[in-house]
Amino acid sequence: MAATTLTDRAIVRLSGEEVRGFVQGLVTSDVAGELPVWAGLLTPQGKCLFDFIVWSDGEDLLLDCEAEAVDDLIKRLTVYRLRRPIAIERDPSLAVHWSKDGSDGVPDPRLPELGRRWLAPSRNGEGVEHRSLSGGQARSGGAKNGGGGDETNLSWLDHRLRLGVTEGRAELGDILWLECNAIELNGVSFAKGCFVGQENTARMNWRQKVNRRLLVVEADAPGPRTRVHYPDLGLAVEHRRTDDLADAITPDWLKRALAQPSTA
Q1: pLDDT digits (tens, 9 = 90+) for 42-57
Q2: Residue 233, exposed/middle/buried by CB under 10 A (0-12, 13-18, 19+)?
Q3: Which of 7, 45, 47, 160 has the fewest beta carbons under 10 Å from its own?
Q4: What is the pLDDT of residues 190-227, one digit of tens each?
Q5: Closest by alpha carbon to 81, among 16, 177, 11?
Q6: How many CA atoms does the CB half-sphere of 223 hold within 13 Å?
């Protein structure tokens, strides 16, 4: 069976009183409704600090985030917690699983073409009974949870980038959230109420002034606008003006966004 565990991801569990209300006031997406959703935690200026996928487990919320960023994310959330009776901690009992196709899990909330995603303990072997999170809620089932590692991580990375989707601090960090293609990838709600960085983000949306975007390009070497270069894949993530798209990968979802009028 194919490996499914993304070992470069980690889970942060938030539990306690009014957890959804706490997270709702911080992140860019609406966590009061159906989960999972992709969301960002921004600076007051609207630049990305962290991105993650939010799941529910009963009354708890789970943040599917970069393993390298998990400690910093917990520290940031703890600053906002103040005296609220909410526990914020890494949950090592759960792993993030991904499959390019199949029936396990749910479609990635950013883009269905990204494949299927679910949370469950990492298991080797087939037909292992486990407690999994699919569709945002805990359930019991017999989905097959293969091991993971570099091969699965690399397969996911290649698949994601060739669909033009960026994630993580190296790619998104300190970039304005709408320039991270957050609207097009379902990473922001302008109807949910306040969140950190909302003012500048909402102003950009109202003015339709997104004149730069994160793009994936084919590249043998890093260039002057490269944020991250992946030499094994021949791909790079670059921050470019929307009138400079030479050699950029432009899937259909991005073409539709670029075709919209702008005041930039």
Answers
A1: 999 999 999 999 999 9
A2: middle
A3: 45
A4: 999 999 999 999 999 999 889 999 999 999 999 999 99
A5: 16
A6: 16
Structure tokens, 24 = 């709702």
CATH number of 155-258: 2.40.30
Q: Does residue 106 contact residue 64 with C-beta atoms inside 8 Å?
A: no
Model confidence over 92-141: pLDDT tens digits? 999 999 999 999 999 999 999 999 999 998 664 333 333 455 555 433 33
**For 148, which DSSP code?**
B
Rounded to the nearest angstrom, the gap between the alpha carbon of residue 175 and the centroid of all alpha carbons in its chain is 14
pTM for the predicted model, two decimal places: 0.90
Q: Which residues contact 10 (CB under 8 A, 6 or more apart)?
A: 65, 66, 67, 70, 90, 96
Contact 17, 86 (CB under 8 A): yes
Question: How far, in Å, CA of 57 to CA of 96, rounded?
Answer: 14
Could you give the dihedral angle defined by the CA atoms of residues 106, 184, 18 and 16, in that order, rounded to the nearest 10 degrees? 50
C-alpha 205, offset from chain centre: 20
